[in-house]
Design goal:
single chain; about 425 residues; alpha+beta; five-stranded antiparallel sheet; 15 helices; 8 strands; about 10% strand; globular
Length: about 425
């Protein structure tokens, strides 16, 4: 079943089934509890729900996984957003003395949206995407993931498809969660390169020498640029897209890849004769067309809300799923399961499954509900994405255990 088989009018009927039998509450709670090390970490977290007819409910908070489950199954939100961990329970924010209700911590987050690239893609515009322009998201993930890990030292990055036209990154390291607004702004600034609004023609200006971070980013862009920009987007296809000085190049060479080679040769020639200006013209073009475009305000604020993983996109029906970086080039947003597909898959029992599971359920009634939910999602296309989420959580748990052992060893030394 493709996205075209999803009918938004059916969403009110599908959501109760999704939240009752498929949403990974156990992993979700495990993620946002962070091992239960900090007191009230989950309890003081803000959730916000968008309900049918765009009814927006902020400052929701829950004491336990069970409480979260019951409320979501009762409200069946069209969209779930996750906010900060506050000084008090968000659900009681009206009862707290004015000025004392403060956002304390939150994952460092990044939001990359395809609409921000409309000036450099000719295949689609606005909310539309295709396999050609999705390459921009692949480039963004490659560049930012490397920088966040290698340059800034973060380890626990959860990359998530938004469900429609973009990607989100949740940096979950303890150090990232504790960053101040000023520090988050500094990180966002470090990672930003494309500057200026619609009226700015040249949005990337490089200075000499080129910063190592930009050099690393360029090596990623150079890998994708010929196929994406020159062939896919036809960057050098018309005279209109060219400077007057380059019309000769347009008229004498018809192949876009060879035109680009000639353009680079001209730039290198200019670099040899000019000490200032124009020497990085080719690199600036590549970065302007392909470098990640961040919504900096999302990253700066501690109290900024961001769409939750495993939320359903009401327009496309696609689930907001984790992205496997080991197979990033193969990730296809159009192959991401829709809520209609996974609910349909639930109705197809596998041979021999019923008898075996009924026996297990009788053995231990208390675990039966949780086991049934695991069994349910494993029968659907959602299974591989929840497995990916589990692997991410396991890596965080191992890291946390390692840190605690290190601390206890250090204390023994004194």
């Amino acid at each position: 079943m493709s996205t075209s088989d999803y009918d938004p009018a059916c969403l009110p009927d599908l959501l109760p089934l999704y939240y009752r039998r498929l949403f990974p509450f156990s992993q979700y709670y495990r993620w946002l509890s962070y091992g239960g090390v900090a007191k009230n970490y989950f309890q003081n977290r803000e959730f916000s729900f968008t309900l049918k007819d765009d009814i927006y409910v902020r400052y929701q908070s829950f004491s336990t996984q069970n409480e979260l489950e019951k409320e979501m199954q009762k409200m069946n939100p069209y969209k779930i957003d996750i906010g900060a961990v506050y000084s008090h329970r968000p659900s009681q924010h009206n009862t707290v003395k004015s000025g004392t209700f403060q956002a304390l911590e939150k994952e460092l987050v990044f939001d990359i949206d395809m609409t921000d690239y409309d000036d450099v893609r000719s295949c689609c515009s606005a909310a539309d995407i295709c396999s050609k322009c999705w390459t921009l998201m692949t480039i963004a993930v490659r560049i930012l993931d490397r920088a966040l890990r290698d340059d800034l030292g973060f380890q626990h990055l959860l990359w998530v498809y938004s469900g429609r036209r973009g990607v989100h990154c949740w940096v979950c390291d303890e150090a990232a969660r504790k960053l101040s607004v000023a520090a988050r702004s500094a990180v966002a600034e470090y990672l930003s390169l494309v500057k200026g609004g619609e009226e700015t023609v040249k949005k990337v200006v490089l200075s000499d020498p080129i910063h190592p971070f930009i050099s690393q980013s360029l090596s990623v862009v150079e890998h994708y640029f010929p196929q994406y920009a020159l062939v896919g987007q036809d960057l050098l296809s018309s005279k209109e897209s060219m400077d007057k000085d380059l019309i000769d190049l347009y008229q004498t060479e018809k192949n876009p890849l060879k035109r680009w080679d000639k353009l680079k040769a001209l730039v290198h020639q200019k670099r040899a004769t000019s000490k200032k200006g124009g020497q990085y013209f080719d690199k600036e073009i590549m970065l302007q067309y392909c470098y990640p475009r961040l919504d900096v305000n999302v990253s700066k604020g501690v109290n900024h809300l961001l769409k939750s993983p495993f939320s359903v996109h009401p327009k496309t029906g696609r689930i907001s799923v984790p992205i496997d970086l080991r197979n990033l080039d193969k990730f296809d947003p159009f192959e991401v399961p829709t809520i209609s597909l996974i609910c349909e898959e639930l109705d197809k029992p596998r041979a021999g499954e019923e008898e075996e599971d009924d026996t297990k359920d009788k053995e231990n009634e208390t675990d039966a509900g949780e086991r049934r939910k695991i069994r349910d999602y494993k029968r659907t296309s959602l299974a591989k994405y929840i497995k990916l989420f589990d692997q991410f959580l396991d890596a965080m748990a191992r890291s946390r255990k390692g840190e605690m052992l290190k601390k206890s060893d250090l204390q023994k030394e004194f």
